[in-house]
Amino acid sequence: xxxxxxxxxxxxxxxxxxxxxxxxxxxxxxxxxxxxxxxxxxxxxxxxxxxxxxxxxxxxxxxxxxxxxxxxxxxxxxxxxxxxxxxxxxxxxxxxxxxxxxxxxxxxxxxxxxxxxxxxxxxxxxxxxxxxxxxxxxxxxxxxxxxxxxxxxxxxxxxxxxxxxxxxxxxxxxxxxxxxxxxxxxxxxxx
Length: 191
Known about the structure:
- Helix 6 (155-172) packs antiparallel against helix 7.
- This protein has helices at residues 2-26, 52-63, 68-77, 90-97, 138-149, 155-172, 180-190, and strands at residues 38-41, 44-47, 105-109, 125-129.
- The chain has seven helices and four strands.
- The longest helix has 25 residues, at 2-26.
């Protein structure tokens, strides 16, 4: 009987915590760690003096025509690391370019289901006005979003993708006489 009561209490507590977090979120309150470019202060996100200019640079570079992979390379060459201390990859750049936090909004999956899309493109995602200062303007965010939605990517990404597709075609076709790993390395090194 005590075990059943403990289990009920645990489940009920989890639901109450989730409800409280969703309520706080709906008022624009912070319920997550700050993204790159922000830090916590007074219970809300505040722009980080060191990394907020990097976020602006990422948006400016992307709108100016630099691809996500080249932006990631540029950041790595500058010695800039992600919030977790890792090197930048194009997916980190894409996450920044699609995150409405940078225009003063917050997004969250409020239905309780696990988010499997790291870019929060699901219909179950709620976006509300946050209580924090935006790092970029709505106009800049919109321009980057338009460029993302028109499928613009840099040529290097296409060449590497094509090389990997060719490798997979050869592998699937069982063309053993091509010495596949050796052939793949030659393809990738050419680009």
